[in-house]
Amino acid sequence: MSRRKHYHRHLLSLLHKYHHCRRAIQQIHSHFLVLNAEEINILALWNSIIKHYSLSPFPQEAVFLFKYLRTQSNPLSFDSFTYSYLMKAFANMKESYVGSQLHCLSTKVGFDYHVHVQTALVNMYLDCGCLIVAKKVFDEMPEKNLVTWNVLITGFVKLGEIGLARAVFDVMPEKNVVSWTGLIDGYTRKNQFHEALLLFRKMVVNERIKPTEVTLLAIFPAIWNIGCLEFCQMVHAYGEKSGFNTLDIRVMNCLIDAYAKNGSIESAWRVFEDIDDVRRNLVSWTSIVSGFAMHGMAKEASDCYKRMQSEGVKPNWITFLSILNACSHGGLVDEGLEFYQKMVDEYGIEPNIKHYGSLIDLLGRAGRLDEAEKIALSIPNEIGSVVIWRTLLGACSFHGNVEMGERVTTKIMEMEREYGGDYVLLSNIFCGAGRFIDSERVRSVMDERRASKVPGVTLI
């Protein structure tokens, strides 16, 4: 191998090695620019830089580089890879108008029949939200491969067009696991969980197509929303058999969450314990803490948090929200306040509206309404929410605090007047205190304002 070829391969290896480091790519880019014209006229090297820029958070740099190379006295003859990478850049930039100019240019230089370039073009228009144009390009393609069909399905799914995605799926000449996974993901995104599970069952049982770990991750939302413990156990067993549980920590974390939401906290705990200490991450800990919280197991959630801390895992805001909810449901008021202070003072996490809501619920359940009201009044206006005051109003109703109930309702009415539940709660507070005339007055105001109350639904 000549010294020059060896040098070019070395540069390519550096590009691949540091493809996530913008500064490294820019340094290699700068190095190319100071070489003589003969040295830099290597398309594979420039394509590699364009590719990395296109996939980076700064895709516009790929476009700038392309324009620069086109204006040189000895311009390169760009190939299909160049145009495909540039279309990905425009897709990431969400600029369909400028992307359409590249579309025209690629057609002019003869890539209108190139399946990879045209597939990248379909993807670009879909990522930019240009559904009709993408479908037109797809329909006019003289040749389509499986990737092209899958790009169209996943693009429709991202745009929320599950009906169109299913129509494309049904007429595909050939399907693979990516096709099935894309549509399953689409159904879960649209909350059509039964459809997702039926499709998953059809894929595995009827078509004998083996799911990947991505398929399992896509089906989990359907499993825990429907509450199908049997399906959860089936996926768990398949993950064990196929090795996904060992290879992908995300699958194990989802299993913890799914078992907890399906009512089997014991199974969730067993899955958690089966994870090696080295592989167990923050999501694993947060999932099991959240599981204990939703089952009202405050002490277990607290102990699990302490164990996590002893193993050097740093909690995030979701971890603290879970532990606050656990303390709220378990009546551990002082512990909950201690965790809240630890979150703010020790970890410097700024509380959001969910933390405030959980804290007020914690104090409200314990009857410490004055403290809860003080916290509600201290919440910054930019993150304030009517839900906070409704949580406090519910606590006032439970504990029969009429005076605070009136104050809280006044705050709610300043923010929103259309929800009938607020009037009903205040009316009930008055009834509980024997103030029946005031109760009837509130009901009359509710009728005058035509405030609606969400009807109850019985689930069998």
From TrEMBL:
An annotated Gene Ontology molecular function: RNA binding
Transmembrane segments: none
Keywords, sorted A to Z: Repeat
PROSITE patterns registered for this protein in UniProt: PPR
GO annotation, biological process: RNA modification
InterPro entries xrefs: E_motif (IPR046848), PPR_At4g14850-like_plant (IPR046960), PPR_rpt (IPR002885), TPR-like_helical_dom_sf (IPR011990)
Placement of PPR repeats on the sequence: 145-179, 248-278, 281-315, 316-351
Record protein name field: Pentacotripeptide-repeat region of PRORP domain-containing protein
Organism: Handroanthus impetiginosus
